[in-house]
Amino acid sequence: MRAVTSWLSRIWRADALSAFGLAALLLLIFLGIFGPWLPLGDPTQIAAGPRLGPPTLQHPFGTDELGRSFLPRVVQGIRATFLLSAVAVLISAVIGTLLGMAAGYFGRAVDIVVARGADILFAFPAILVGLLVAAVLGPGQVSAIAVIAIATLPLLIRVVRSVTLSVAGRGFVTAAEVAGVSALRILLLHILPNVMGAVMVQLTYALSIGMIIESALSFLGLGVQPPEASLGSLLRQGSAYLTIAPWMVLSSGAVLSLAIMSVNLVGDAVRDALEPLKGRALT
């Protein structure tokens, strides 16, 4: 815990962009978690204000076509977008780490099967996968999680496989093999700790990709379904009233852009902390 606190304080002092990204990300996460208990209003209350009303002190983000306050709906959208993306990325991280380590360590047939499978998944656009999954499972949150996991899985497999290939040839792995240590123990105790840094960096970028995919799916009506809201579904809702109520698109679009930017900035900070010689401070 002390190491994490020291790392966060070092980021805050040394890199203004990363500090801004971290602050913005923490704010969005706070709103997403505690939004239902904050005095922002009910996101489902109809006629809370005038239909398509402009931003006011009572409704800072205006109201939608049903008179619902748009601010609590944006906060609800933050929670849905972050939660779905995080769950999907964690699933792909676990599967991708295991498959990537197996491909890099065992090689030969395992490497060929895993690498070619990742290439096949990588060849399909996320929207096409979303259409196929929605046709099988139906539109909704489960479909969105499945599509994000499928889209981010080959990226994680490639990264973990590459790092595993470099670690598997080192002396401490060879010594463990000579000593008769089982392959499972070598993967868990010797290789996994050495690939976790790369996994953590890739997780942050995969999260931003996941939010983009989730928003695109919800915008097309394949993700979060009404009356629940995500940032993508709010963009779709606001696009129908762009000329008369632009604040609906501007507010949800600005929050989505801020979320993606903050995750990428924090990802840069994580990369710089793990690979200081490649960081922005020395370039």
UniProtKB/TrEMBL annotation:
It holds the Pfam family BPD_transp_1. The chain crosses the membrane at residues 12-34, 82-106, 118-137, 143-160, 244-267. The keyword tRNA-binding does not apply. Its main location: membrane. One of its GO terms (biological process) is transmembrane transport. It comes from the Bacteria. It is found in: Cell membrane. It is a multi-pass membrane protein. This is Peptide ABC transporter permease. It comes from Pseudooceanicola lipolyticus. The lineage of its organism: Bacteria, Pseudomonadati, Pseudomonadota, Alphaproteobacteria, Rhodobacterales.
